[in-house]
Amino acid sequence: MPLTLATTTPGEPEIFASLQGEGPSMGQPSTFVRLSRCNLACQWCDTAYTWRFTGDNRPHRDALAFERSENQVAMEEAALAERIAALVPDRLVITGGEPLLQGAALARMLAVLDDLRPGMHVEMETNSTVAPHPALDARVNQYNVSPKLAHSGNPADLALLPERLAAWAAEPRAYFKFVIATPDDLDEVRALRETYAIPGARLFLMPEGRSSDVIRERSGWLADFCAANGLRFTDRLHIHLWGDTRGT
């Protein structure tokens, strides 16, 4: 069964080698695979081309609609594994969209990849709302979990599912990454941390922004908050290096 990927240009799947730009693995050489489709709709999403296709009226601050045929491509599991194996990094980051929507197919793809490149470190990015497929979960080394706060525009009953947040908080492979736009967002993080007993060592705060200027402006007060509250700060390294572009 093919996987549904995002594209860098029409027909070309978004598979690339770069540096991980965020979270606990920031700066690590990594191969990225960006999948298409998402069950949430963040109004500041920087990959809206993975879900906001023509006819989708969910709010987004850019109000852009993307043609599905130009921004989505199907790829067989074995072919994807071969493309990943041909790249240099031994760390694979699977992102989206929401990758866990395609969990069963990802598990089959990783089984093929293990024959081609045994032992690759697998990072799975997720918005926290979807449980991992059991066969996929057995192959993931690290989860980068990014629950969406109120400023994302998603209703809490869709974006902040208590049973899923509790499960991620209890999962030692899961690192939480909260996107922060204003100081008001920090009260929501405090409440979630207390409710689900999220360890500070696994909780990152990241400034929301698609330009270096915006990220730097927000980084000062956010870094101060992290230092004062025993939390971890993460930059958006890829934005500083390459800007807000696909395939980076």
Note down, in words, how this protein is organized.
This protein has a single domain (3-176), classed as TIM Barrel (Alpha-Beta Barrel). It is built from 9 helices and 11 strands. The chain has helices spanning 68-71, 77-85, 103-116, 134-137, 156-159, 162-169, 185-196, 212-229, 237-242, and strands at 3-9, 12-13, 15-19, 29-34, 72-75, 91-95, 121-126, 142-145, 174-180, 203-207, 232-233. An 8-stranded mixed beta sheet has the order 3-4-6-7-8-9-10-11. It has a 3-stranded antiparallel beta sheet with strand order 2-1-5. The two termini are 27 Å apart.
Question: What is the compact description of this entry?
Answer:
The protein is α/β, with parallel strands linked by helices. Helices cover 32% and strands 21% of the residues.
Number of strands: 11
Strand order of the largest sheet: 3-4-6-7-8-9-10-11
Which structural class matches the secondary elements?
alpha/beta
| Tally of contiguous helical segments | 9
Q: What name does CATH use for the topology?
A: TIM Barrel
Count up the domains.
1
Shape: globular
Low-confidence stretches: none
Largest sheet: 8 strands, mixed
Average pLDDT level: 97
- What distance lies between the first and last C-alpha atoms, to the nearest angstrom? 27 Å
Order of H and E elements: EEEEHEHEHEHEHHEHEHEH
Write down the Rg: 17 Å
- Strand percentage: 15-25%
| Assembly type | single chain
Q: Which CATH top level class fits? A: Alpha Beta
The proportion of residues forming helix, as a percent range, comes to 25-40%
Binding site for substrate: 19-21, 34, 95
Binding site for [4Fe-4S] cluster: 38, 42, 45
EC number: 4.3.99.3
Catalytic activity: 6-carboxy-5,6,7,8-tetrahydropterin + H(+) = 7-carboxy-7-carbaguanine + NH4(+)
